[in-house]
């Protein structure tokens, strides 16, 4: 039985087809009229004013109690804001796809913030 050259089988052609398909997708942009993820996040955001509070549960964490009484659990609160009593205004987006083991407030991501 003759030995085959494994580099010249049909698998090589399939690899070329796959490479061509991937190359065609690499430069494609989002379809016209469809918002980018950042634009979608900004559209779902809201501005809140509140006070940072240290919550002594589950080892302790920092949350925001808004002026209207809601409890927000930021996933990206900057270190310089992690002080009980700090007043801030922040643009936040609710993280609908997340749950928290703390079950204290609504998980949010801070997009913009300023100290008051």
Give the topology, please:
Layout: H1 10-26, H2 37-43, E1 46-55, E2 61-66, E3 71-74, E4 87-94, E5 106-115
Parallel strand pairs: 3-5
Antiparallel strand pairs: 1-2, 1-4, 2-3, 4-5
Structural category: alpha+beta
How far apart are the first and last residues' alpha carbons, in Å? 83 Å
Q: What is the assigned CATH homologous superfamily of the domain at 38-115?
A: NigD-like N-terminal OB domain
**What is the tally of beta strands?**
5
Largest sheet: 5 strands, mixed, barrel
Shape: globular
Look at the structure and give the CATH class of the domain at 38-115. Mainly Beta
Helix content: 10-25%
According to CATH, the fold-level topology of the domain at 38-115 is: OB fold (Dihydrolipoamide Acetyltransferase, E2P)
Radius of gyration, whole Å: 25 Å
Mean pLDDT: 79
The DSSP helix count reads: 2
User: Architecture of the domain at 38-115, according to CATH?
Assistant: Beta Barrel
Percent range for β-strand residues = 25-35%
